[in-house]
Amino acid sequence: MKNATAYVGRNMRQYGILAALLAIIIFFQILTGGLLLSPNNVASLIQQNAYVMILSVGMVMVIIARHIDLSVGSLVGFIGGVIGLLVVGSGLPWPLAVAIALALGLLIGCWQGFWVAIMGIPAFIVTLGGMLIFRGLTVVLVQRTVSGLPPSFVSIANGSLPPWLGYLKNYDGVTIVIGLSAIAALIYSQMRARRRARAAGRTVDSLRGAVVRLAIYSAAIGALTALLAYSAGGTPIVLVIVGVVILIYSFIMNRTVIGRQIYAVGGNLKAARLSGINVRRVDFLVFVNMGLLSALAAIVTTSRAGAAVSTAGNLYEMDAIAAAYIGGAAVSGGIGRVSGAIIGALIMGVLNMGLSIMAVDSAWQQAIKGLVLLCAVALDIVGKRRAS
Questions:
Q1: Cα(382)–Cα(156) distance, rounded to whole angstroms?
Q2: What is the top-level taxon of the source organism (predicted)?
């Protein structure tokens, strides 16, 4: 009975986040006179907020493990600066520069993971120090804008997949195939997971509920597919990158030993230690992974800007943290989902774009996003009090 109640609670929380996203979309669609969901604006929404989605995936894992990372924005700026200097200053081929950037992100993740996991310094202090260190290094490294990046690199965040399959009544064929494949994969994976859960004796929702949920998700994917297929470029390249990140990390968190260990460590640290989990190893790997995803976000951000600038990544950590908490991550750790973090990132992105279309001052945009974050955390705390 207790497991069934927890299962229902998790699903209600997820449905509530989806309902909030839908309500915000409808709200801004009305206020902007239909401009929010125009095909080109939808493509721009994905391209402009890809960095939030990537960072929020790593951040939700950090938060689940009961930590926080304040350094990711500074890492984005620093690693982006390194990419610019390697490609423009040293003439290095950009694929090699990207590989070096990812390796650098791993190295920095190891550095911060060492202080947190091995030395036992609170992550807040370690990453606050990292935020200051790498922001300072960014300013020293990138004293002026480093422009002139190759068009092929710039297209990572600004380009779209080539129209290999042509067009069907002005709809991009590649995008249509990707959308239909995504719907088919979703239905197959969900039904397969449902069968396995029932075979293992775990609680599952009713068949009607499962069908309704799949219908809603499939309709959402179908609508997004139609809008992107009708946009000027079709499927953004960066959407493919984000999609791969979501698939990989959803699998890691739901299907692997390390994913279960992250939840266990965040949910009950003492019990995790008593069960034989190497807590230090889990904490270390969480920060190594955050460094890797920060490097990936730096690649996307630098490509989007078409240049390396010293102010790149400013307040990105706030966007990532907000997306994770809005998406249902618990302040105390142990609770959170990759899909929830992505929905939280989309909520932040829709707020940004909707308010920008309405020409709302950037200061008010920051205030509104802060209020949304406060409400999300307050709802989480109130929900826990009621449950207890």
A1: 42
A2: Bacteria
